[in-house]
Structures are given as structure tokens and as C-alpha cells.
Write a structure and sequence with these properties.
Length: 90
Amino acid sequence: MMTEGLFYDTLRQALWAAVTMSTPILIVALVVGLAVGLFQALTSIQEMTLTFVPKLAAIVVVFWVSMGFMTQTLVAFFNGHVIPLISGGS
């Protein structure tokens, strides 16, 4: 039976895995957004697609590059926390 403490520990581990997996994408989105915003401020270009397209392209590239890391993190979480809970261990 899952106790309240075990539930919150599993939830904490799941949230930490989500933060770990999303960090590379969020950092790249932040850096590209700041660079494009600075470029727009310096050149007075206010084109909406100029902010969207480079950020989307950078996110897709980083997602593709870090897909193996994300998969390993998710598999480690499931093997270490979720599957033992399903099988009845603690």
C-alpha cells in the first residue's frame, strides 16, 4: 500500500526528473529569445516571426540532440521508482 510519504517522495522524484529533462530546452529558448530581442531592439525590426522561427528552430535542434539524455533520465526514473511501486516493493 502506498503511504502518503511514499506518494510525495515519488511525486518529488517525478518533478525533479521533469525539471532535469526540460532544463536544456528552456535554457536554449531563453538565450535565443534574449539574443533575438536584443537584435530587434538594436535594429528596430518588430517582426513577429523573427522571434518565433529562430527560437523554434533552436528548441527543435536541442530537443533532437538531448533526446537520448531525456530517454535515459525517464527510464532511470521508471526503473528506480515507478516499477518497484507497481510490483509491490517500496
